[in-house]
Write a structure and sequence with these properties.
The chain has 20 helices and 34 strands. By secondary structure, the chain is α+β, with helices and mostly antiparallel strands. It has a nine-stranded antiparallel beta sheet. The two termini are about 25 Å apart. Mean pLDDT is about 95; it is low at about 1-35. The chain has three domains: about 5-35 and about 715-790, Immunoglobulin-like (Sandwich), CATH 2.60.40; about 40-80 and about 130-315, Beta-galactosidase, Chain A, domain 5, CATH 2.70.98; about 95-120 and about 420-625, Glycosyltransferase (Alpha/alpha barrel), CATH 1.50.10.10. It comes from Zobellia galactanivorans (strain DSM 12802 / CCUG 47099 / CIP 106680 / NCIMB 13871 / Dsij).
């Protein structure tokens, strides 16, 4: 099946935006809510209670203080710099030795060989960093009453309201992607009521100066205590009061007795994402000032309208209603506390889903860098794990909801970034492994390095690039964009496959092709010959084999669609047919390693060996039923030994159970994600804060109500509706979710029974709609809409 999504996307978007609300009213007995707000009755006490705003590049955490307000600012490219990790040239000779040792059963010595001769130095801290702080100190007399702060997900605006001495103060905050400017609007219901001083600061490496009466500039160069000199930055704030007086001195701006005040914040860096070691040379001060002056020519009304229209172009595509429940009119922190104490709150899960979409829109837009470990929101000069791009699940999990949640454009920064790693990845493949193709290990950052670094336990894992390439195929699967498939997806999947073909070796014990030496991400096992000593590397770990199966299968599928038949395709076919597959142990669990090793950490946070269930599609009830029981046993074993204790791990488990069709377990783990791994501002705790759990949880909710990873014998998409619907969501509706095959899907259910479904196809195609045991085949013309209300 071939169809070009880009050719019809504009028509479809217009068609759906006009019909979406009518469709929801038609298919849903509930209709649309006016919620989608996080709100609180007190200011944030700390960073994990503040509310995030962002436009993909420029973000802030808003604390909602009364007498003193802080906006903690971030710009996506403020990173400390070189030196970066380097390849251990010629390491392939030691790799060959380690392989022989593993096949002989000497895992400890193989571990040592890899550590001593292959792994590069981990250089840390060398972190993503905050841009700085904008501090607003207000001249207020009296205690506030009727306080409320909120984040409106519908409009992407944070707001604080309160009353002091009879004056109602309102403060609004948003980050405009149109202007690449943060806008702060301060108003009061009485004239001359706003007096404040504002300043900017940073924890290190900054200078501040005034520019005329109404502007401050702060500039510097990111570093780690003077070392690792990185990106040069500048940020400026412009104050635009109406009425009152304004003055500036000593790097502060003072405003007295204004009727209202608008603050505009811009930021620029010299980071060049196409060539990070050739920074831009533009004058950052001039660039910031230019942005502010351009933005200042627009009225607040115009700025807000354009911001909302731009944001809602993404956000309004999906409307989710999981039903009403007592207590949903309470502040968000009280609702979360109730869930912690055992209450059910479907509306909070609905809010969590839309919050995940909000965070992705706000941290990953076309033209931006991809969302890192903290999206774009980080208050640490030396962030946990450098707030980098961890490619052994975390970066990928950030983008699990992108396609299904109808935010395909937000996936683009991920594609652009992974493509930027190919030159370095090819160099690493040649120097370290003497291999063709490109390779990425467990982590990287904006300097585009790809070397294996640090400890073998986490660093000796050359599968990061291969995993990332599956996202390219997913984008095609959801959009049907054959141009993207031909020009971006197939080339990068091929480069990854070329490395994997060279990397695989024949296991003398089985005659099958295996990967290694490699770790199963961040895990370890007791060695059979050495008692209580443990090792990390093996040959043929389950996750490696599943990722390789996935990559080869995607390459062959793409080649078939593109009608490519050549020697490379034949080589991939031959390798796939002889690839070693994961084994089931004597206890009935899916084996993580090639042998039945005793695990050191039986509740390990990574469930790497289950990749083939989710996000992969190697295992399912129909084609591989013999694996399903083993997978269930593996999950239960991990959980019974304390697994799922990080937010992102728990989110992964939700998706596992959704794929397995286990609604009760998926819902149970969704509640645990909220109760144990979610802060009052709904940020995910690792702990500490990592945003991947938010995105994984969002994907999990979608996976519970819609799945489309299976195909029939002719390659047509099977759209499975309500595959893991919990009894706690008896009545609900959704509009605008995406399914593979190029479909946009809206449906409603009552008392656990599907009542209606409407589908719009982006191309001429066939799909099958599955509801329980009922399967209905539908044939579509391009841009055709069909609705079902009866299911056989």
């Amino acid at each position: 099946m071939q169809y070009n999504y880009k050719f019809i996307s504009a028509v479809l978007l217009l068609f759906f935006s006009l019909g979406q609300q009518a469709l929801l009213a038609q298919t849903s007995p509930i209709g649309m809510k006016n919620g989608n707000k996080l709100w609180y009755t007190q200011p944030a006490a700390d960073w994990m209670e503040a509310l995030p705003i962002g436009n993909g590049k420029l973000g802030a955490m808003v604390f909602g203080g009364v007498e003193s307000e802080r906006l903690q600012l971030n710009e996506e490219s403020v990173w400390a710099g070189p030196p970066i990790p380097e390849n251990r040239v010629g390491a392939f000779k030691s790799i060959e030795k380690a392989r022989a040792l593993i096949f002989q059963g000497d895992y400890l010595e193989a571990n040592k060989v890899m550590q001593d001769n292959v792994m590069g130095e981990r250089i840390a801290p060398r972190s993503y960093q905050p841009l700085g702080n904008l501090i607003l100190n207000f001249n207020l007399k009296g205690s506030p009453t009727d306080y409320r702060r909120e984040l409106d997900l519908k409009r992407a605006i944070a707001k604080t309201d309160f009353t002091v001495n009879g004056v109602r103060y309102t403060r609004e905050y948003f980050s405009s992607a149109i202007e690449n400017t943060i806008v702060v609007v301060l108003t009061a219901n009485q004239p001359k009521a706003i007096s404040l001083e504002l300043k900017m600061d940073r924890k290190a490496d900054f200078e501040v100066a005034g520019v005329g009466k109404n502007r401050l500039r702060m500039w510097g160069q990111a570093s780690q205590k003077g070392k690792h000199l990185g990106v040069k930055y500048e940020t400026q704030v412009m104050a635009l009061p109406k009425g009152g007086k304004m003055s500036s001195e000593n790097g502060n701006i003072k405003i007295t007795a204004a009727n209202s005040v608008v603050l505009l914040v811009s930021a620029k860096t010299d980071y060049n994402k196409k060539d990070p070691f050739s920074p831009f040379t533009e004058n950052l001060s001039t660039a910031c000032a230019s942005v502010l002056k351009k933005t200042a020519r627009k009225s607040v009304k115009k700025l807000k309208e354009e911001h909302i229209d731009d944001y809602q172009h993404y956000f309004n595509r999906v409307v989710l209603d999981l039903g009403s429940f007592p207590g949903e009119d309470k502040p968000t922190n009280e609702r979360l506390e109730a869930v912690i104490n055992g209450a059910d709150d479907p509306g909070l899960m609905e809010l969590y889903f839309q919050y995940g979409r909000y965070l992705l829109i706000s941290s990953s837009r076309p033209g931006s860098l991809p969302a890192n470990l903290q999206g774009i929101w980080n208050d640490h000069l030396a962030a946990p794990w450098n707030s980098d791009y961890h490619t052994n699940i975390n970066m990928q999990m950030n983008y699990w909801p992108a396609e299904v949640a109808n935010l395909s454009e937000c996936h683009e920064p991920f594609f652009e970034f992974i493509e930027s790693l190919v030159p370095s990845g090819k160099k690493t493949a040649k120097e370290v492994y003497d291999s063709e193709g490109f390779v990425v290990h467990h982590t990287t950052d904006v300097w585009h390095w790809t070397s294996p670094i640090g400890k073998v336990q986490y660093g000796m894992w050359p599968m990061g690039g291969a995993w990332c390439t599956r996202h390219f195929m997913e984008h095609y699967s959801f959009t049907g964009d054959t141009t993207f498939l031909a020009e971006q997806a197939y080339p990068i999947m091929k480069e990854s496959a070329k490395f994997l073909l060279d990397w695989l070796v024949t296991d003398p014990r089985s005659g099958k092709l295996v990967s290694g030496p490699s770790t199963s991400p961040e895990n370890k096992f007791y060695t059979p010959k050495n008692g209580e000593k443990f090792a990390n590397v093996d040959m043929g770990n389950a996750m490696d084999q599943e990722i390789i199966w996935d990559n080869f299968s995607n390459v062959l599928e793409a080649a078939k669609i593109l009608k490519i038949e050549d020697a490379f395709v034949d080589e991939v076919k031959a390798a796939l047919s002889n690839l070693s597959l994961p084994k089931i142990g004597s206890d009935g669990r899916l084996m993580e390693w090639s042998q039945e090793f005793d695990e050191v950490d039986k509740g390990h946070r990574h469930l790497s060996h289950l990749y083939g269930l989710y996000p992969g599609k190697q295992f399912d009830k129909k084609k591989t039923p013999y694996y399903i029981d083993a997978i269930n046993r593996s999950i239960e074993h991990r959980l019974s030994n304390g697994g799922g204790h990080t937010g992102w791990s728990r989110a992964w488990i939700i998706n596992f159970y959704a794929r397995l069709g286990n609604a009760d377990k998926a819902y149970e783990n969704m509640k645990v994600l909220l109760a144990k791994s979610t802060a009052t501002n709904l940020f995910d705790y690792h702990p500490p804060f990592q945003i991947d759990g938010n995105f994984g949880g969002t994907a999990g909710i979608a996976e519970m109500i819609l799945q489309s990873h299976e195909t029939d014998e002719n390659g047509n998409t099977i759209i499975n509706l309500l595959p893991a619907l919990p009894s706690e969501w008896p009545t609900g509706s959704v509009s605008g979710l995406k399914a593979r095959g190029g479909f946009e899907v809206s449906f409603a259910w009552e008392n656990g029974v599907l009542k209606s479904v409407s589908l719009i196809s982006s191309g001429a195609s066939i799909c099958k709609v599955q509801v329980g045991d009922s399967i209905t085949e539908l044939v579509f013309a391009t841009a055709e809409k069909q609705t079902l209300t009866e299911f056989k």
